[in-house]
From TrEMBL:
InterPro entries xref list: Gp80-like
Pfam family for this entry, one: Gp80
Native source species: Fimbriiglobus ruber
Protein name: Phage protein
Superkingdom of origin: Bacteria
Organism phylogeny: Bacteria, Pseudomonadati, Planctomycetota, Planctomycetia, Gemmatales
């Protein structure tokens, strides 16, 4: 089986990124749903692991939480886009190249990675650089 119906893909993304119910299939967790999707940076493709796989390690790096609401993410058909630029902490040491971004459930640790994709162009990080993902960064579920 290959491919996903674009309407259902959009519904699935809206559930994950906007906490929107999919009628007759799924509701947002009612007792303690996650309130943010955590964005991470990676030096290599993390998709076969967890959100900690190949994760950025420059000094002062931390994942960034983005609200699971329409104020944090715009979902349209089968694509999701951050509403605002996602800025990571400025590097205070270390040098590395971030080539992937990940989206997951937790602020730290080897936790569930929802999605990951290549960053183009890559981000060269060194002292004083503030890595950012812009509002033109997209995730398309196909």
């Amino acid at each position: 089986m290959t491919g996903t119906n674009p309407t259902f893909a959009g519904d699935l993304l809206a559930l994950i990124f906007n906490a929107t119910t999919i009628a007759n299939i799924a509701i947002n967790a009612t007792s303690s749903p996650i309130t943010n999707v955590y964005v991470s940076l990676h030096t290599a493709d993390p998709t076969s692991g967890t959100q900690a796989t190949s994760e950025a390690a420059y000094t002062s790096y931390a994942r960034v939480g983005v609200a699971r609401t329409s104020g944090g993410w715009t979902v349209s058909t089968n694509t999701v886009v951050p509403v605002a630029t996602i800025s990571f902490p400025a590097a205070t040491g270390g040098t590395e190249t971030e080539s992937y971004a990940g989206l997951g459930q937790s602020a730290s640790g080897s936790t569930l990675l929802f999605f990951a994709g290549a960053i183009s162009p890559t981000i060269s990080v060194s002292n004083g650089v503030t890595p950012q993902l812009s509002t033109s960064s997209t995730l398309t579920l196909s």
